[in-house]
């Protein structure tokens, strides 16, 4: 996942799809910058992280 830092990604959870620039990967959550502001997503909710097409 570290190869995705500072790139535009899609983060898939069981509830929603987040799009934005991946800024930081921590032990318990990731931080993203989206068009609407900062997003924190807990690691246990993440199903997939992929580069945005």
Describe this structure in words.
It is a single chain. The chain has 53 residues and is mainly beta. The chain is built from no helices and 5 strands. Strands 4-3-2-1-5 form a 5-stranded antiparallel sheet, with no helix packed on it. The two termini are 16 Å apart. The model has no long low-confidence stretch (mean pLDDT 95).
Short key terms for the protein model shown above:
five-stranded antiparallel beta sheet; 5 strands; globular; single chain; 53 residues; mainly beta
Which helices and strands, and how do they pair?
Blueprint: E1 8-13, E2 17-25, E3 29-34, E4 37-42, E5 46-51
Antiparallel strand pairs: 1-2, 1-5, 2-3, 3-4
Indicate the low-confidence ranges by residue numbers. Answer: none
| Number of strand segments | 5
Percent of residues in helices: under 10%
- Estimate the global geometry from the Cα principal axes: globular
Summarize the structure.
Helices cover 0% and strands 62% of the residues. The chain is mainly β and 53 residues long.
